[in-house]
Amino acid sequence: MNAYDGSQVHFLRSAYSGKVKEEGFFVNEVSKFPNPKYPKEKELQHLKDFTQTLKTKKQSLSLKIYKKLAVAKHRNPL
Q1: In this structure, is the dihedral angle defined by the CA atoms of residues 45, 50, 56 and 59, taken in order, positive or negative?
Q2: Mean pLDDT over residues 18-44, rounded?
Q3: Which of 4, 48, 57, 74 has its CA 20 to 30 A from that of 29?
Q4: Range of 70's domain?
Q5: Higher confidence at residue 55 or residue 32?
Q6: Half-sphere exposure of 30 toward its Cβ, with a 13 Å CA cutoff?
Q7: Burial 47-58 (b: 16+ CB within 10 A, else e)
């Protein structure tokens, strides 16, 4: 056995020549189907919008707190 046996190059050459089975490879078909538990596009967009709203409110709240602290510090310097 050498490095070529079972390698990607070996497989691709076998597939190209139509000798996959004869060369000892097994090929399985993969089926793709939607997951019914995965959220729909509309639900994902709603979540993105909600997250953006929270980020905006958090920034706004942080700015308000910063301004209040700055005003309080200006009125009562240490």
Answers
A1: negative
A2: 91
A3: 4
A4: 39-78
A5: 32
A6: 3
A7: eeeeeeeeeeee
